[in-house]
Structures are given as structure tokens and as C-alpha cells.
From TrEMBL:
Membrane topology annotation: Multi-pass membrane protein
The keyword Ribonucleoprotein is assigned to this record: no
Assigned keywords, A-Z: Cell membrane, Membrane, Transmembrane, Transmembrane helix
TM spans (from-to): 16-34, 40-59, 66-87, 263-289, 301-319, 349-366, 372-389, 401-423, 435-459, 466-489, 495-516
GO cellular component entries: plasma membrane
InterPro entries assigned to the protein according to its UniProt record, in alphabetical order: ComEC_N, Competence_DNA_uptake, DUF4131
Pfam families named among the record's database cross-references: Competence, DUF4131
Domain annotation DUF4131: ranges: 38-197
Domain ComEC/Rec2-related protein: 242-518
Name recorded for this polypeptide: DNA internalization-related competence protein ComEC/Rec2
Cell compartments where the protein resides: Cell membrane
Domain of life: Bacteria
Amino acid sequence: MLHAVSGSFGRQQSHLFPWAPVCLGVGIGIYFSLMQEPPLWGLGLCAAVLLLCWLVAVWRGCHRGSWVSLVLWALTLSLTGAVVATYKAHAVAAPVLSYRYYGPIEGRIIAIDKSASEKMRLTLDNVRLSRVPPARTPVKVRVSLHGPDMGTTFTPGDVVITTGHLGPPSGPVEPGGFDFQRHLWFQQLGALGYTRNPMLRYKPAAIENADAALRLYTIRRALSEGIKSRMSMREGPFAAAIITGDRSDLDASALEILRASNLAHLLAISGLHMGLLTGAVFAVIRLCLAAIPAASLRLPIRKVAAVAAFAAALVYLGISGASVATQRAFIMVSVMLLAICLERPALSLRAVAMAALVILVTTPQALVGPGFQMSFAATIALVAVFGAIRDRGTFLRVPKWLSGVVALLVSSFIAGAATAPFGAAHFNQVSQYGLLANLLSVPVMGFVVMPGALLAGLLAPFGLEAAGLAVMELGLAWILGVADFVAGLNGSTRAIMAPSVHVLPLVALGGLFLCLWQGAGRLIGLLPICAALLFWASTERPTVLISETGRLIGVLGEGGRALNKPKGDGFSAQVWLENDGDTGDQAHAATRAGFAANDLRVNLNGVKLVFNAANPEKIDLAQACATNDLVVLPRLTDFLPEGCQGWSGADFLTGGSVAIYETKTGLRYENSRSRQGDRLWVPKPRKRRQ
């Protein structure tokens, strides 16, 4: 049996490199799934045991291609991934505000965007807070501007002052949900808040003294504003998003229709944009040099064109904000251009693997984000399928004039199928007509929008960029028109329930096996995918959800989740409904069961849930405790008597949101902190004082 396993591994010898980032990602995934921060001695012990295994393997004469050697390499890479993630989490450690703060706020603007409520939002560093020692002051804070006189134009680098509210980042809106605290930990954002007072410019920007990152952001910001000022109100922000990555002025309705029509990927600066830009530069430079006899006879024009295309890709990487998808595309393009310069064939899956290795080593936290997962899912699937088509040379035997259309159809279908599970899991919806929208839009992006952007860039030094931007505007108007049409079709989107934590890892494992394994054995990858679908279909949603504030309660019934109030805690309500696969809004959900906003009583397996946010003194605690009712007291000043079941304000402060499940054996309770575990980014619980 061992001989058969060894032979199976042996057949993969020339195709093992793409598995390296997979093993690295397994270690990173294990790190993020742990309930406790791994101690350094534990990692050291694992490394020592692994080293001992290597020594034994060498002593026993195991050759490089043996199954023992391959397993040891996989374990080594996985341990490396865990070490890299641990190091990164500790390296970015910074103070996090542990209480609600109101007072003076001073800082330097390093980013400008908009909140979900369309309010201007400033990210500040060099922060100073009154009565907060420097050692406990967050490295960065983010402040939304809700007050009057907020029309002031700010510049990155401005030092601003205001008086406002700040607080620590909130935990997941439901146990096991998206971890905002972890997300913001790696951004070193230690406090979020708002101000209703004017934000004043204390010192103007001094860009000459700024660091490289701020200078580059200033250039991107100026470029973005220039593009939007020369185009219409709808197409301008779209153009800025695909050139500079700035989505701050993108209309919420436009973003919604792009998502509903499965065209939101056009906003993400990824392989499509990078490939079109570098391909256009490569072709133009090569054609121009070939038209000059002296240059074509004396210069290696393919290599010169490759170097020019690399320079264009590097500039685009800088001005676009270097997102995960853009980094992946840049690394892949760089590998292929280097192969041209070295006159070597470019191995696409190796290029994808190299891009994944670089990103996972430098930003391991990207692994758990939708950008990384969807970008690499689409790329790996496209490269694997088109590589198989190229090798067999039979699937796309169609007339030459039709090959482009067939290739577009196949690529759109493959990319959509590969990213659909990840998009549905993260965004709780799938587009029913995404293939149609992509067929009508992607060619326009390739033949109109991106060439227009390149033309605008070439003409900008002469002040003639308006011609290129006009071409871009025509193409973007068409794409938005297609998005409007597709999103308006009956049943254009389908709501999807959020899956359990096992689903996406199983989907990823199955997809990777299908794409990377060589031979008929790759079909084994269908097994984890089928298991993932079964897990997804049997996912259990909480019967009751209580928000982190303790003031919003959602009870799942036959008609969907009923909420206790039509307004307030709106973000939590929206996420709960989306995770249920519910298309309703908070106002509609509040009418489902006739709950009063502040007086709610629900029977759960014979146990009564009692809640009154406005007048908790109306609750007869003696009777509730005697009958084992669950009592919810959201105010921090309220405490439950000893032996009484439920949650008070202090419990929500330390434990976060709450989920209640009805099971055959009774009720099961979870809070968000119990699902997060004892991690660096999770606030340590305070001692409860009554």
C-alpha cells in the first residue's frame, strides 16, 4: 500500500510547486481558527519535533520524491504558515481603546472615504487624545463626520482637530460572524467614532515631510479627483475606482446594481485590468519599434516591450492602492514578462503559486478575506481549465472568427462558477444572470474602457487627457446600462443563507484538488465539494439573536426573523437578515410578529425570554428568576440577581452578541467572545462590579 501511495505522489513530481502556498495557507488557517494564541514554546516544540523527523528521514535514506519526504515538506510549510501568521499578528500589535471616550481628538489625515451611511470618514494617525497617555493611545483612529459644516475639503496630510466620540472596535454582530476586531487589528485601527462638531484644519498638509505611503496616497487622491471632475457624476467615480481604487464617491445604488448583476468584480483592480493594461503597452511598444527599421534590426524589441510593460504594471500597482487582487495580478504579470526577457516559457500555475506565496508571507491575514479567496479561486480555475484545453487542443476547435466569443463565454462561466461559493458565503447572494452581464460587459471593458484609460494616460502630459476619458465614459455608461438592465430582471439575485465554518475550507480543498492534482485522481476533489454543499444545506441558524448593545432582538419563525424594533442597531439587523438568506429589511422584519420595541416575551422550549429596554424595572425579577426565565437587561447599571438566568449590560460588554439555539435537549447559548476565543485582537473581559 505504501508503495502505491509513493507511486501516486511520484506522478505529481513536476507539479508540486503550486501546492506550496496551499500548505502555507493551511498553517495560516489553523492559526486563525485557534481558540487561544499559540505560545512560542508550543511553536518551538512543533519545530523541534519536525526537525527530528527530518533527521530520522535523512538517516533512513528517504529520497526527495518519497511520500515521507513530501509529507514532511507539507508539514514544514504548514508550520511556517502558522509562524508567519503569529509573527504578523504580534508585529502589528498596537493599543486599542478599551472604553468609550468623549473629548478632543487630534490627528493627521492618512485616508478619506465614506461610511455606509454616506458620511465622510477620516482615518487619522499621530493621534492625540485628552487624558489618554501616549502608550495607550491608538496608532490610528477613524472618525465619521456627522455634524454641520462638513463640506470642508480636506487633503491627506492635514492635521485636524475636533471634539467627538470614540470607542473600541465592535465584535461580531452574531457569534461566529465576521470578526471586525481581527480585521481592524491588522490595520492598527484602535478606535472608531464620530463627531457632530466641525472638523477643523489645525495644520495644512506638509507632504514634503510625509512618508512614501502618504505621498503616494496623495497622488492617488489627486488623480482620482481629477478624473471625477472631468467626467459625469455616475461614470466618474466608476472610472476612479478602476484606475486608482478610490470608491469613496461611488454611488450606493450603482454599487448595488453591479453586485446584483455580478459585475462588481470590474471594480476590483485585478488580472483583467492589469492584463489589459500591460498587454496594450506591450503591443503598442512592440509595434512602434517594429515600424522603425533601425530599432527592429538592432534591439530585442520583445524584451524592450516587456520591460516597458513591467514599468506600466508597476506604476498601475502604485496608483491603484495595491489591493490583494492587484498584487496577485502584478506578480503574475511580472513573472510572465520576466520569462519573455529570459526567453523561457511562462508556467501559469507556477506564477499563480508564486503570487500566493508572496501575499501569504507578507499579509497572511488576507487568507480569510473575500478578496484573496475570490481572486485566487477565479485565477486558478481559469489557468487550470485553459491549460487543459491547450494541452488537449480539441475542446475549442471552432471557426477562428468565433473563438474569441467562445473563449469569453467559457472564461466567464468558469470564473463565475469558481467564485460563486465564496461570493455567496461572504455576501449572501448570487446573481442569476451574471453570465449574460459579463458577456455584454467584459469585451467593452477590454476594448473600450482600458484602452481609453491608457490613451488618457499617454495624452495627460500634453493636457489632452479628455479624449481618452471620453472614450472611457462611453464604455462605462454601457456597462452601467447593462448592470441596470440585468439587475432589473425578475429574480436577478437569489438570497443565500450564511454557511457554517466548515463549508468554505471544504470547497477550497475540493477545488484545489480538481485544479492542481494530475490525472484522473483529481475527481476525488468532488467529494469535499459535495460534503460542503450538504453542510451548507443543513446549516442551523440561531432561533434568537441579541445584539452587542442588548437592545435589538431577532426571533426566527416560519415567516422569517422577527425584530423587536424598526430602527436602531441597523447594521446588526441587516447582517442578521442577510445571513438568514432573507431579502427583507429591518422595518419589514419588525412587523412580522408584532413585538413591541421595548417589551418582548418569547417562549423557547418552555423557557420564557423577557426583555424591556426602556423600563427594565417593570420586569418582575423575582418571578422571572423563580420560573427560570431568560432576562435581558441591556443597561450597564442593571445587574441580574445571583442565580437568575440571562444577560445584563455588563455581560454584553464582556461577551458581545448572543445566539440561542433550540435543540432536542434544550437551549444552547453562545456569545461572540466564546466563538472568538482568547486572541490578541479580542478585548480582555473586565471584572464585573455590582
